[in-house]
Amino acid sequence: MAFELPPLPYDKTALEPHMSAQTFEFHHGKHHNAYVTNLNNLLKDSPLVDKSLEEVIADSWQNKNAGVFNNAAQVWNHTFFWSSMKPNGGGAPTGAIADKINADFGSFDAFKEQFKQAGATQFGSGWAWLVIENGTLKVTKTPNAETPLVNGQTPLLTCDVWEHAYYLDYQNRRPDFLATFLDHLVNWDFVNENLAKA
Ligand SMILES: [Fe+2]
C-alpha cells in the first residue's frame, strides 16, 4: 500500500508568528509531500512495497540503498517533527521528562545549550535530536536524512535544521530559529509520550 502524506496535527497558521503558514505550505505541502511521492515511486516494483515505514528505513540503510533511505527517512523525520511542536509550546518541560532532563543533563538550561549547539553546528542540512539510548538521554545531530532509528537510539524530539525549515521566517538566522523552537514550540506532551514508550 502506498504511503500517504499525514495531515499536520494543527492548522498551518497555528504556530504563527514563530512558524508561518507559508513555511508550512512549502515544508509540508511541497517538501514532505515530495518525499512521500518519491518514496512511492521508488517502491513501486520493490519487495519493500508492503513493509512499514520503519522496516523500509532499516532495510534501505542496511543495504545502502540511498535513494529509498533518504526519502523514507525524510518522510518519517518530518512526521515526527510536526508532532514535536504545538501552539503555545516550548519553555520548561513538564512530567517525567522534566526530571529525566535534570538527572541526565544537570539542568534544563544545560539541555537547551546542548540542543542549540547541536542544531547550530550541524554543517549543511540535517536534524537536532533528543534521544534515549540505554536508558540515558542524549542530544545528537544527524546529517541530511539520517535518523537516530538506525543508530539504536529512540527519538524523543527533533528540530529540522534544513534551510527549508526556517529560511522564509528567519533567513540565515538558524540559532534564532532554534531558540524560538525551544522557547515557544516544543510539544513536551509528545516527548513524554515517546519517553513512556521507550
Ligand atoms: Fe524539512
Task: Compose a concise summary of this entry.
InterPro entries: Mn/Fe_SOD, Mn/Fe_SOD_BS, Mn/Fe_SOD_C, Mn/Fe_SOD_N, Mn/Fe_SOD_N_sf, SOD_C_sf. The chain is 54% helix and 12% strand.
The total domain count is: 2
What ligands can be seen in this structure?
Answer: fe (ii) ion
The overall pLDDT, averaged over residues, is 97
Number of helices: 8
Q: Could you say which overall geometry the principal axes of the C-alpha atoms support?
A: globular
**CATH homologous superfamily descriptor of the largest domain:** Iron/manganese superoxide dismutase, C-terminal domain
List the helices and strands in order. HHHHHEEEHHH
SS elements, strand count: 3
Poorly predicted runs are none
Instruction: Work out the strand percent.
Output: 5-15%
Given helix and strand content, the structural type is mainly alpha
What is the level-2 CATH architecture name of the largest domain? 3-Layer(bab) Sandwich
Show the helix and strand layout:
Layout lengths: L20 H23 L9 H10 L3 H18 L11 H11 L2 H14 L4 E8 L2 E8 L10 E7 L2 H8 L3 H12 L2 H10 L1
Antiparallel strand pairs: 1-2, 1-3
Helix pairs in contact: 1-3, 1-6, 2-3, 5-7
Bound molecules: fe (ii) ion (FE2).
The site of fe (ii) ion has 7 residues, from helix 1 and helix 6.
Write structural notes for this entry.
The model has no long low-confidence stretch (mean pLDDT about 95). This protein folds into two domains: about 60 residues, Helix Hairpins; about 100 residues, minor pseudopilin epsh fold, CATH 3.55.40.20. The chain has a three-stranded antiparallel β-sheet with strand order 2-1-3, sandwiched between helices. The protein is globular, with a radius of gyration of 16 Å. The longest helix is centred in the N-terminal third of the chain and has 23 residues. The relative contact order is 0.15. The chain is mainly alpha-helical and about 200 residues long. It is built from eight helices and three strands. The structure holds fe (ii) ion. InterPro entries: Mn/Fe_SOD, Mn/Fe_SOD_BS, Mn/Fe_SOD_C, Mn/Fe_SOD_N, Mn/Fe_SOD_N_sf, SOD_C_sf.
